[in-house]
Fold these 2 entries.
Entry 1:
Amino acid sequence: MQVILHIGFPKTGSSAIQSHIFTNQRWLGTQGVYVPKAGYASGLGHAFLLDQENWPTIADSGYRGPAGEGALAQLAEELELAETRGFQRALISWEGLALLNEPAITTLRHALGPHSVILLAYVREQTRLYQSSILQSVEHLTFFSTDSLFSDASETLKIPAYLHFDAVLSTWHQVFAGAIDIRTRLYHRASLLKSNVVLDFFGWLGLNPGEGFALDPTRVNPSLDVRSATLLVVAQASGLNFRGLLSLSRSLSRFVADCGTESSQFLSVEQENSLREQFREGNARFFETFRPENVDQDTRGFPVTHRSQAQKESAFTLSDMQHIHSALTNPAIDTWLGGPLVAKNVARVACRPNEGWRGAEMAGVWSVGPRSELAFRLPFTHPVHGPTAIRLTIGGRYYGRNVETLVTCNGRSRRLNLEQAELSVDIDQKTRQDGITLVMEHMFPEAPNDGAGASAQSGIAFRLEFLSYQFVWDPDDEQ
């Protein structure tokens, strides 16, 4: 069997590609392309194939992560079974593969066994990729990039190793002892099929998205621009709490998507030139050894896009601020792909506009009052052959006398112990359009340490510490 590894790189349309692989899994099966389930999570791609030790497992915490144990062993078994079923190709996709070190690549090679391997990497001019990555890290509230965002022109920038395309791909070639076919494509609008990375990817596979293929009409993975990222970093420096920062980040992302602002350049011209010089020799080797398939044969380097006047403008207008204020005061529920949220990260679902939660703490988010909501939208799924349900996992701990919660979803109510609970929620036309809402009614909310003057309206009952879900298909729809 031929195994295709789509490794990204990050910020080259990987989220859009993985979202459409997920949405069209059954269609891919009809085209002879098998998508392994090992380490796979909704629109995230195969993000848990090699990283299961970083997620909760049933053994150490009572929670079950999406990969479980032995994801690579499961992969090997799946590939063997798929081959006996007549599949000639298998597709593995995750931009994190581009970040693997040599031992991890070696581990993956052993799991792939005797199968022939084709590696596909989309690449992008490094100064653009670097700046987009910094803006994404700000959006995700990691904030390790604050210094990079506000760096002085004279400072030496810290460059992630994965930006050295020649070195990364050479490591893959070396680990596989040359028994790997490495292909690359330029992530540049003018070079992509119909200026669309999704259509470009499926076209590269030799597939023609037609009947039965679902193309998501919405914009995938909107990112912050320079102005909105700056506002978010300033808010963080001013002491805004995690819940407020998360709400602001989501509002700014929607603002950028709605307004179509694309200014992702914050480095000075001098810094960009310095970066290009650092990559000059490596890029020359890259174009000699791993030349992108969608560029002319005489191309010797990445196209350089000059800054437009619109991209040089950095001040917010009054209408911009009004748009952001409106989004903050009237927040909408957001899309959650289902990947595990642990400790304070559960606030990415348990936050405004969802009611009944306190601010995030290191261990999780406490309920407040007798009623709490969890509402989220699902990613775009195939309207005909998509999943029929989700299996939602909730974990945490109770306070005081509380031992169970009345949970209502889709008109159905049941009492559950949410310290470790799993429930199935059907996907119908309404949930595809409006999302899923769980209403949690707590029995005995009370103030911590029996604080004086506390009431059920302000007391706590349950600390949410873990959330994840997986999609469920009808057996007849399994590829």
Note: Residues 241 and 359 are 8 Å apart (CA to CA).
Entry 2:
Amino acid sequence: ALFEKEALKLSCEAAEKAIAAAHITPDEIGLIVVVSTTGISTPSLDSKLIQLLKLSPNTARLPVFGLGCAGGSAGLARAAELSKSFKNKAVLFIAVEICSVTFQKNDRSKSNLVATSLFADGAAAIVLKSSDHQQENSLKIINSFSTLFENSEDVMGWDIIETGLKVRFARDIPSIITNELPTLLKNACEHWGISRKEIKHFVLHPGGAKVLKAYEESLERTKEDFKNEYHVLKNYGNMSSPSVLFVLKEFLKNTKPTGEYGVLMALGPGFSCEQVLFQW
């Protein structure tokens, strides 16, 4: 009940800001996509958000569960793909997590302590619209690429126990990123038909301090190159799926558009990596 109450509150606030920033009215939205993994609500959050935001009762709905930290990237990719089917309508994409409700009161394990210290609550929303002509100063979503690691479900996820959702994550996540990220990016670029050198921007999920350090090492970049990621982690914590969208907001605010390629990336349960190719 607490998840539903707080998720709706944060989602509404984020969605209202996104709709206002897009200069559209609620009735111009044809589809709402809501990503969340920290709680369950049936009817799903999207049905309640349609009414709270005063969207059309004919708005299509797509609730997405289980993507964890990768949900911001994967959800954005799916919303962008679906927007092509709604030529005359906009798509509202929302990522919302209430990580605090997953705290296990009597669990004295290190993973519970780390999760409580690191994870936070948050929501982010984006309005997308398919267009034959890119508008000035607008982010263009071009393609995406998904990777699932075999037999890796023990790396990250939830254990469903009597007292709720108990966090599960492996200590070697930073080393996995350090070892695998160059290949993941190489494979994505080959799929997209571009060279690795053409990627000028990175918008990455700030999973934690060690994860950010792993990004620096694997991509041969400096801490300054990830100032947006460090800013979000420091000021908001790891909000799971919304975090990479918070980084995207900082990136758009701090980076002059030049039409160059960038990659928005997040890793999550599966264990999986979700990459989105964009132009800015």
Note: The chain has a mean pLDDT of 92.
